[in-house]
Amino acid sequence: MTAHSAHGAYHRPRELWVGAAQLGPIARDESRADVVDRLLLLLRQGAEYGCELVVFPELALTSFFPRWILDGGGNGPISGDTTELDSFYEVEMPSTSTQRLFDEAKRLAVGFCLGYAELTPPDADGVRHRYNTYVLVDRDGEITAKYRKVHIPGHEAYEPWRQFQHLERRYFEESPDGFGVHNAFGGRIGMAICNDRRWPETYRVMGLQGVEMVLIGYNTPLNYAPDPSQNPLQAFHNHLVMQAGAYQNGTWVIGVAKGGVEEGVESLAQTSIIAPSGQIVAQATTIGDELITARCDLDMCERYKKTLFDFDRYRRPEMYSVITDPTTKSLVETAARERPDFDRHDHD
Length: 348
Ligand code: CDT
Prior knowledge:
Elements: E1 3-4, E2 10-11, E3 15-22, H1 32-48, E4 53-55, H2 83-86, H3 99-108, E5 111-119, E6 130-137, E7 143-148, H4 168-171, E8 181-184, E9 187-193, H5 200-207, E10 213-218, H6 234-249, E11 252-257, E12 260-262, E13 265-267, E14 272-274, E15 280-283, E16 290-297, H7 300-305, H8 311-314, H9 321-324, H10 332-337, H11 344-347
Parallel strand pairs: 3-4, 4-5, 9-10, 10-11
Antiparallel strand pairs: 1-2, 3-16, 5-6, 6-7, 8-9, 11-14, 12-13, 14-15
The structure holds 4-methylsulfanyl-2-ureido-butyric acid (CDT).
């Protein structure tokens, strides 16, 4: 296919056929082998549809285990016998159980992006680290980039008042690496995981590195215990943040869910492929395993990056320093105290 440039010359657009491979629930006792079978089906379907890249969701190899207390508990760090907890992590990638996925990717020449729980080998101090991780695998079946989740939501200790736990802050460390953007699949590719998608900084940090496609997997329970008034808005907020992130940074966004009712917890589906215009160009219609695809013209990013969102021309970073100064705490509380109706007792 050809396209007409502003100067009258024809050029071949940089097209990337992408598959967003939504998963339905993964049971607590579902084996890695069974899950990998499901991933292989979606990868092969992607190949049939001409995809060069298939994106799987966050923690795509297991049930969303932060909903359970799986160690000795308590208010401190992970304690006691961690055998069951560790069984949800990968200590190497590819692992024995995921090697088939890498082999098939190479055979089909279809790359993929896979979310999993990573347990590192001991560092220089003998400490093993736990991350919520994404790997980007190229069409030769080789890992080309790794991303570890930056924004870790939820809580650190067991909270009995909740219907189910969200212990991500117990089981995962925050990424020490941040948001990279990688030359891959003929474009500039970045990754983010679930809660990251709600933060504008996620997209902007990658936008400033020229990102053209952000891959985002998620597990989003429909029941948000700290404020149930948000429950009916989950689908709206999901699209709101990803569409805004795409538009404001002139990038494609691929949002991929693990949806459906997993171990009694209902999770958002609505996997979608979003253009740099902010428009949704493909969306899943089920809450189970489902592949959606789109032809993504990476050159479309320039239409936004070189006009409204010409960062070098229009941004005012000197006006934004409060965002990046690590010593600055949120000013929300200070501002509240200055309000005439502020009730000190509610806030101290
Ligand atoms: N997996 C993940 O990051 N989920 C969060 C749920 C937040 S509720 C504690 C999300 O932002 O969708």
